[in-house]
Amino acid sequence: MVGLQSRWRYLLMFLGIQLVVMALLSREGYHKRVTYFIRIFRKPDLTSSEHHNRTAVTVAAGDVYANLFNLSKSHSHGDNMPYCPETSPLIGGPIHVSFPSGLTLAEVQRKNPLVIRGGRYRPPNCEARHKTAIIIPHRNREHHLKFLLYYLHPFLQRQQLSYGIYVIHQAGNYTFNRAKLMNVGFREAMREEDWDCLFFHDVDLIPEDDRNLYTCDANPKHAAIAMDKFGYKLPYKMYFGGVSALSPLHYLKMNGFPNNYWGWGGEDDDIGIRVSLAGMYITRPSLKTGRYKMIKHKLDKGNDENPKRFNMLAKTRQTWKQDGMNTLEYEVVSRDYLPLYANITVNIGTETGLHPLPQSPHAKDEQKPAANASARR
Ligand SMILES: *[C@@H]1O[C@H](CO)[C@@H](O)[C@H](O)[C@H]1NC(C)=O
Ligand SMILES: *[C@@H]1O[C@H](CO)[C@@H](O)[C@H](O)[C@H]1NC(C)=O
Ligand SMILES: *[C@@H]1O[C@H](CO)[C@@H](O)[C@H](O)[C@H]1NC(C)=O
Ligand SMILES: *[C@@H]1O[C@H](CO)[C@@H](O)[C@H](O)[C@H]1NC(C)=O
Ligand SMILES: *[C@@H]1O[C@H](CO)[C@@H](O)[C@H](O)[C@H]1NC(C)=O
């Protein structure tokens, strides 16, 4: 009888404690309280330092600059630096991407003290295993470029790459030609440096995971496989748009990209077809790491939908050897080596050539790009 009574008493005490715990949990917030109760059962010194570290990690999680604080302090380019490790210890996984309204290029510069003129960087305390050039076709997108630079510089530094960023700026107002600007970027970048990988990068796509390595594979790589715009899925199997990576060998093997896609659309599919026509495959990162956030924007002037693209795509098999790097023509207007990127401004001409002959008013009307379509890029 006595035993039963004391058992009841223990049960009641136990329930009472539980009630108190539950009340505290619901009042003070679950996390804080759980940590508090766990701490009671731990050695004080151990828990406090762990708690501290956990806080630091939580604050830093997803911040693309988080792992780079130390780099600026140990600046020591030597002749006999060891190679960087196969896997960079600075890689942190998912990156939180947002677009703060007050960001300036000066701020991006301040946060990237080791980037030198022309947007070049080398890891300060090891010899990079990879040399990657980033090629960004551009016109009228300074606002996007600023955000891309803010994220891309630390992203590449975390991967311990030796890199350079080339903005290929199309001069004039004629219809935009993304693929031809990439060809220009390839030639201009390779003139300057023996890059072993080139990333062809739309200005409005921000990578969201630094395990998406900006290095080249044995085959051309399509990196932007999971964009928020497409629900973080590949829109279709042959898709090769947004961000892709080719080694110089890959690039020349497929005669580069087409020069004759003026306006929005088609050129990325043409490039995908070229890859297979040249006997190569498309490789891809995993859906988990090949994630990108697209900066939203309004319609672009001078980048209307290309109405000829379906006809052109049907003929890629016949045209790829006659149109590409071997027929590339352009004029460099200026080369500016700015603190965060090289601005290569080029005249790439029009559909009728680099220096179109003066045309009759009638012909001019026909050549004029439609000023008014619903295309976006
Ligand atoms: C994290 O913990 C380590 C010891 O494990 C300590 O040396 C370091 O200072 C802590 N970091 C922070 C930010 O408190
Ligand atoms: C950062 O630098 C501090 C001292 O300056 C050093 O103790 C710490 O280990 C470094 N951290 C990393 C990740 O290199
Ligand atoms: C491009 O267009 C802008 C305004 O629409 C004009 O001011 C400028 O002169 C044009 N540039 C050329 C090279 O035609
Ligand atoms: C690149 O240089 C050209 C020519 O100076 C200039 O018009 C253009 O705004 C520059 N673009 C960028 C992104 O710096
Ligand atoms: C563009 O379209 C709008 C309405 O669709 C029209 O009012 C305008 O005149 C067009 N502009 C040109 C340059 O065609």
UniProtKB/TrEMBL annotation:
Domain Galactosyltransferase N-terminal span(s) in chain numbering: 84-217
Biological role: Responsible for the synthesis of complex-type N-linked oligosaccharides in many glycoproteins as well as the carbohydrate moieties of glycolipids.
Enzyme superclass (EC): transferase
UniProt EC number: 2.4.1.-
Name this protein carries in UniProt: Beta-1,4-galactosyltransferase
Glycosyltransferase is among the record's keywords: yes
Annotated TM spans: 6-25
GO molecular function annotation: metal ion binding; N-acetyllactosamine synthase activity
Region (Disordered): 352-377
Taxonomic source organism: Nothobranchius furzeri (Turquoise killifish)
InterPro entries in the cross-refs: Galactosyl_T, Galactosyl_T_C, Galactosyl_T_N, Nucleotide-diphossugar_trans
Membrane topology: Single-pass type II membrane protein
Cofactor(s) in the UniProt record: Mn(2+)
Short name of one Pfam family: Glyco_transf_7N
GO BP term (any one): carbohydrate metabolic process
Record CDD domains: b4GalT
Record's subcellular location: Golgi apparatus membrane
Chief localization: Golgi
Keywords carried by this UniProt record: Disulfide bond, Glycoprotein, Glycosyltransferase, Golgi apparatus, Manganese, Membrane, Metal-binding, Signal-anchor, Transferase, Transmembrane, Transmembrane helix
Residue span, Galactosyltransferase C-terminal domain: 222-298
Pathway: Protein modification; protein glycosylation
Gene Ontology CC: Golgi cisterna membrane; Golgi membrane
Catalysis performed (reactions): N-acetyl-D-glucosamine + UDP-alpha-D-galactose = beta-D-galactosyl-(1->4)-N-acetyl-D-glucosamine + UDP + H(+)
Family affiliation: Belongs to the glycosyltransferase 7 family.
Name of encoding gene: Nfu_g_1_016863
